[in-house]
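1st attempt posting a full record on here, be nice pls
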Amino acid sequence: MSRKRRLLIAASCVAALLLSAGGCVVVQHDFDIRTEQVTITGGAHPLHGTLALPEKGDGPFGLVVFVHGDGVATADRDEFYRPIWESFAEAGYASLAWDKPGVNGAPGNWLDQTMHDRAVETEAAIAWSRGRPEIDAQRIGLWGISQAGWVLPEVAARHPELRFMILAGPAINWIRQGEYNLRAELDQRNASADELADQLRRRENDLTLLREGADYPRYRTATTDSPPMSEDRWRFVGKNYLADITEALPRVRVPTLLALGERDLHVDVAETARVYRESMPASLLTVRTYPDASHNIVTFELDKPDSVRSFLVALFAPRSLYAPGYLDALRDFAADPSKH
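the predicted structure (as tokens):
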């Protein structure tokens, strides 16, 4: 049987499965939340946001303010956040997130932002939310992933009145994180020692250009990146590559949950856990490490967007993408951060 014919048969089977299981898909994506599109004002640009409220009740509800990681991101991260929003709703919390500037027609360009800019943006969202009648201004917490680890501690350090902070897969230092990610991904695909050495040389060349303040034309001339960064991306990295959260952490006085995946290829979670434990009072810090979980606290084998299995799980059982116990931990921590 030809490869083309096998693919056609497989596609037909998936189509039949989708048609016959349509009811299941509807149920699995019928989260116990209701969403409202909002415009968040008070910052550098109006933000196109989504406010996810518990399905039942009039409030006032607590609120979890979401901050994305790197890359293009819609408010619900292409529905990836919805199971998390549901978990917080079970604890009596609404969730607030927004399209990154420049995404989905939102004004601005997220690649123009520093990590400090993103912290100020988050503070503007908090201030805006306190004027909403359905929100309890005394119960506002933060959730962030990956690059948000250079954003949320700055916010929490300035706002000790916050109810809690939850961070998934945050790094400590931008430069060390980049090298760790490079080595981990090359190791994952069994790259040769020669390839690793070549990639490390390319990386050091780019860091030298950044330290020298090279403009984009010089970067394009001198880099061996394949493909090279876009001009916006080069500018973004130049503004942020010295990010390090070490100095802010000792000033955080907000109950904090650190969620780490043991198979994180992006962040050295051992370093992250160590630095947080050294920097924050033990009474305020809870560290949860999830075996066989990825950077996104998703079961490692399911955190592959080009995988048919991942696609089917996301379609039919989206809550099952996450590492066992993670969604429950979010709900329980939000309900009572003092118990953890």
